[in-house]
Amino acid sequence: MKQARSTHKYEFIYPNPPAELVNVWRYRWEFLRRNPEYRADYTSFIQRFGDWFRQRGFWYETETRRLKWSRKDEDYFLEKILPVIAKLCTKWRLGNLLPPDWEFSSDDGTLSTRDGRILYPPTSIAAELNWDFKTMQALLDRGFTGTGDSAERYVNHLKIQFDLNWPLKDLIAYAKRALGYAQENYHGELRAQCLPLPRTRRRFDQYDTYLKVWDLTEQGKTIPEIASLVFPNDLVWSAQQKVRDHLKVAKRLISGYSQEIR
C-alpha cells in the first residue's frame, strides 16, 4: 500500500501536574481563604464593583464575558477594575482574585469547584503571569505560554516549559509524563498516516566496519581479499558472508537510508 503523504500539526500538551504539587496549591488556598484580611479585601472589592459584574458577568466567567461584554465593557474593565485586581493579586500572591467561599475538591486527582467546573485554585499561578502584561509579553516573545506544566510538539520535536519554582522531583515527574504522552501521540500520528514507526536505536560499533568494507570494495578489492583484511580471525566462509552482509547494509545506508541511524 502506498504510504500517505506526511502531514503534521502543532499539538499542545497539558499533562496534569504532580498530585503533591496540586495539594500544595489547594492547601495554600484553603488557608488563605480563611484569612480575615483577604476576606475583607475581597468584600471591599465586591462592594466597589459587584453591581457592575452582576449585570454583565464576572471576569473569570470566560464564556459569559465573551457573549455579554461589549467593547466598552472590556475597556472599562481594563482601565478601572483590572489594576485593582492586579494589585490585590500581587499582595496575596495569587493568579486570580477568587471568592473566599470557593472550595476545591480533588477526589479524582483533579481540582474542581463546588459547581463542577474543573479549575485549579488561584494559588497555582503567579500573579505576574496573569496581570503583569509586560512580563507576559516577554514570555510570549520567547515562545513561552506562561504555563509551567505545558508542552508543544511538532512532528518529532517537543518543547517543554518548566516552572522552576516546582521541586526537582516534580519537574522530573512532569518531564517523564510529557515525554511519554508526546511520544505516544507522535506514534499514533505516524500510524494514522501509514508511516513507519521509529526503529530501535542501532549499535554504533558496526558502522565503522560497514564503511571500511564499502571503501575497500570501491578500491577494487574482492570479497575474499576484504574478508582476510577485515575478519582475519574468522573462518573463511564466515568472514566472506560477513563481508556480503556488511556490503548490503552499507549500500542501503548510502543509498538514502542514513536517516535510520538513531
What is the strand content? under 5%
The biggest beta sheet is recorded as:
3 strands, antiparallel
Low-confidence stretches at least 5 residues in length (pLDDT < 50)? 1-6
Mean pLDDT: 82
Shape: elongated
Level of helix content?
Answer: 55-70%
Structure in words:
By secondary structure, the chain is mostly helical. The protein has two domains: 130 residues, no CATH class; 57 residues. It has ten helices and three strands, in the order E-H-H-H-H-H-H-E-E-H-H-H-H. A three-stranded antiparallel β-sheet has the order 1-2-3, with helices on one face. Strand 2 and strand 3 form a beta hairpin. Helix 8 crosses helix 10 and helix 9 crosses helix 10. 14% of the residues are buried.
What is the fold's blueprint, element by element?
Blueprint: E1 11-13, H1 19-32, H2 36-56, H3 62-68, H4 71-92, H5 127-131, H6 133-141, E2 151-154, E3 157-160, H7 168-192, H8 207-218, H9 223-230, H10 236-257
Antiparallel strand pairs: 1-2, 2-3
Helix pairs in contact: 2-4, 8-10, 9-10
Provide a short characterization of the protein structure:
The chain is mainly α. It is 55% helix and 4% strand.
